[in-house]
């Protein structure tokens, strides 16, 4: 599960995540050295309401990792599964019918039975981890097979649809509930957006199947209080991820300003260290090229807006969390040029993330 380095991964050169979830492709790219000028200019909104550049304290946003007991962590079990255990044609089948679940387009029963029989060993593993916790962090230098978890969760959901079509509603219900549980495991200790997307996708899939079962069974599945609690947890986890992201960026800015500020848990690859070295050379020539306090304030203000947006009711128009810091890539002599460049190229405008969370919330409310 772990490699030889631990800490916050600093996305200085490029981080690309391509994830197919719910029928959509989410492409997340962060670049510094070769970021297109037109991309920079178009990504910055005119959010200029925050002008105070002081940063008296950011303790309200800073967070740290708390490790769960290894004995109850399912990460090592997931890591034992090869990414190619489910062959591509079967993964395509799962994605076709369960990547965007619909009760009106259930997977063919015969093929589904054959597939669940073929991968019974994986379903046994899935059942064994459903009642555990999950903690694995790319930001701490760990290897986290989120794609495998997604695939096996869809396989378990396939089993639920088999039981559903066989009218074994009680068994289908417990299986779908386990799909939700595994999704909750991923988001419970999430420290980056990717975990939310994978975990929410699993929860959405499980809740979707539970809705189909509930329509057949009738009655009350969740009380109003239970729904409120589930929604509250989703939002708290969303906020916590934004706090982790702010912490990572703040630590990065501190480290660029001085090698003595490198946190013990920061992960940097050679390319990242080289880029930081380049920044430090620029700062040595022009000390005004980086103002750490102002730069952290850019991120602080943005993440404060993003966190406030999480509290809004689903369907509400939210304020943009990306602020206009007056960055021009050609003005290399501008005060805090490097700080503005770092913010403009690295801040992940994640305002649309609430839409994905609300898809889960809406399913919960319909139960």
Mean pLDDT, to the nearest integer, reads 86
**Number of E-type strands:** 2
User: What gross morphology would you assign?
Assistant: elongated
Strand content: under 5%
SSE topology string = EEHHHHHHHHHHHHH
Helix fraction bin? 40-55%
* Widest beta sheet: strand line-up: 1-2
Largest sheet: 2 strands, antiparallel
Query: Helix count?
Result: 13
Can you put this structure into words, describing what you see?
- The chain is mostly helical.
- Helix content is 54%, strand content 4%.
- A two-stranded antiparallel sheet has the order 1-2.
- β1 (14-21) and β2 (24-31) form a beta hairpin.
- α6 packs parallel to α8 and α7 (169-188) packs antiparallel against α8.
- The chain is elongated.
- The two termini are 37 Å apart.
Features:
single chain, 367 residues, mainly alpha, two-stranded antiparallel sheet, 13 helices, elongated, disordered N terminus
Topology:
Blueprint lengths: L13 E8 L2 E8 L5 H7 L31 H5 L8 H11 L10 H10 L1 H10 L16 H20 L3 H20 L4 H25 L6 H34 L12 H16 L6 H19 L26 H10 L6 H13 L2
Antiparallel strand pairs: 1-2
Helix pairs in contact: 3-6, 4-6, 6-7, 6-8, 7-8, 8-13, 9-11, 9-13, 11-12
Summarize this entry quickly.
This protein has 367 residues and is mainly α. Helix content is 54%, strand content 4%.
């Amino acid at each position: 599960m772990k490699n030889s380095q631990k800490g916050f991964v600093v996305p200085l050169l490029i981080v690309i995540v391509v994830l197919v979830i719910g029928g959509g492709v989410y492409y997340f790219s962060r670049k510094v050295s070769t970021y297109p000028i037109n991309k920079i200019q178009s990504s910055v909104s005119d959010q200029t309401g925050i002008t105070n550049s002081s940063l008296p304290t950011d303790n309200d946003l800073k967070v740290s990792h708390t490790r769960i007991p290894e004995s109850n962590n399912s990460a090592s079990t997931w890591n034992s599964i090869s990414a190619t255990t489910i062959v591509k044609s079967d993964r395509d089948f799962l994605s076709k019918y369960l990547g965007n679940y619909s009760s009106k387009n259930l997977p063919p029963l015969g093929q589904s039975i054959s597939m669940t029989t073929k991968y019974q060993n994986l379903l046994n593993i899935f059942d064994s981890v459903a009642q555990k916790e999950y903690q694995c962090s790319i930001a701490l230098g760990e290897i986290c097979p989120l794609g495998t978890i997604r695939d096996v969760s869809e396989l378990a959901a396939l089993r639920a649809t088999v039981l559903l079509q066989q009218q074994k509603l009680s068994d289908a219900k417990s299986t779908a509930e386990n799909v939700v549980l595994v999704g909750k495991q991923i988001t419970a200790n999430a420290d980056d957006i990717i975990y939310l997307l994978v975990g929410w996708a699993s929860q959405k899939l499980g809740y979707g199947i539970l809705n189909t079962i509930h329509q057949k069974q009738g009655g009350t599945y969740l009380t109003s209080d239970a729904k409120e609690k589930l929604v509250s947890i989703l939002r708290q986890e969303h906020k916590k991820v934004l706090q982790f992201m702010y912490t990572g960026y703040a630590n990065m800015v501190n480290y660029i300003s001085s090698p003595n500020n490198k946190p013990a848990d920061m992960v940097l690859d050679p390319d990242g260290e080289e880029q930081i070295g380049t920044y430090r050379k620029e700062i040595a020539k022009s000390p005004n090229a980086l103002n750490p306090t102002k730069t952290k304030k850019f991120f602080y203000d943005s993440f404060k807006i993003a966190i406030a947006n999480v509290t809004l009711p689903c369907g509400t128009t939210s304020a943009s969390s990306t602020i206009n810091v007056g960055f021009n890539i050609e003005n290399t002599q501008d005060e805090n040029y490097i700080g503005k460049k770092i913010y403009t190229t690295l801040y992940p405008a994640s305002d649309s993330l609430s839409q994905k969370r609300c898809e889960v919330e809406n399913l919960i409310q319909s139960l």
